[in-house]
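Lab channel / #folding
Pinned by the channel admin:
"Please post every new chain as: sequence first, then the structure tokens as a reply. Keep commentary short and put observations after the output so the thread stays searchable."

First post following the new format, from NK:
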Amino acid sequence: MPELREALVKKLQEENKLCKSSVMVTAGANQAFVNLVLTLCDAGDSVVMFAPYYFNAYMSFQMTGVTNILVGPGQPDTLYPDADWLEKTLSETKPTPKLVTVVNPGNPSGTYIPEPLLKRISDICREAGSWLVVDNTYEYFMYDDLKHSCVEGNHIVNIFSFSKAYGMMGWRVGYIAYPSEAEDFGTQLLKVQDNIPICASILSQHLALYSLEMGPEWVVERVKGLVKNREIVLEALSPLGEESVKGGEGAIYLWAKLPDKYVNDFEIVRWLAHRHGVVVIPGSACGCPGNLRISFGGLLEDDCKAAAERLRRGLEELVKDGMVK
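Reply from TO:
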């Protein structure tokens, strides 16, 4: 819908300070990422992600034949992408990796990449000749007075989603902000779009346009309520020790390291589900065995308390007695 694209260009300029970007509307942010992989990469290209990574992005590379996936480390104390490692990897890997991707704030970690670090990552990519794809799905999910920011350049593509930003899960609307000056970029994106969904549902696009007209205040107000949920879950994770829990600056996730002897996090996840009735995501799915992703979103406060109590009891038992059958 031209009206939706026009509204998104205005939103990008006013909210995200992206003034040289064109827009493609997609059937969700995951489809936006697949569009970009098919547009920018060929089978056999190398690409860069940082652990813990978003598993859907990893699978998007795999299913499109991009199997040389270089996974960089996060800083141990913050989980920020290691820019020194990135600079070294892009300069030493031949041919140069085609694409680098980050999620900000992060899924699965909830870590927010500070603007100076994001700009450094952008500069490293530009100098190496690599594309930088930034997933901004959780742009409105920021805590502790942190402010979300974007970077722009002829080597940068930004992804956004209505699913989280406007509470439209299931309506499947996302969008790509790509550099207007990048020659033929939009044409190549359209080739991919025309062979996957053709377009996002027209009904969903109308709802997205209405949401933009109403503004993000509805979601921003509800995000404030997630601060209490985060506190509740942080307390539930206390049996693991304060130093074991990271993230939570943005998005709806916390990242927790299990005791060293529990490398098989899939076993822990199954045990917590069957014995204690609480479900979390294994870090192995995100390239980091021995960790857990815990979500504090999508729950009313009372439900969050009930789930957190189950999680706390399970972790206390795990630390004290192990996986009791």
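NK: The two ends are 56 Å apart (CA to CA).
TO: also worth noting, The first strand starts at residue 21 and ends at 26.
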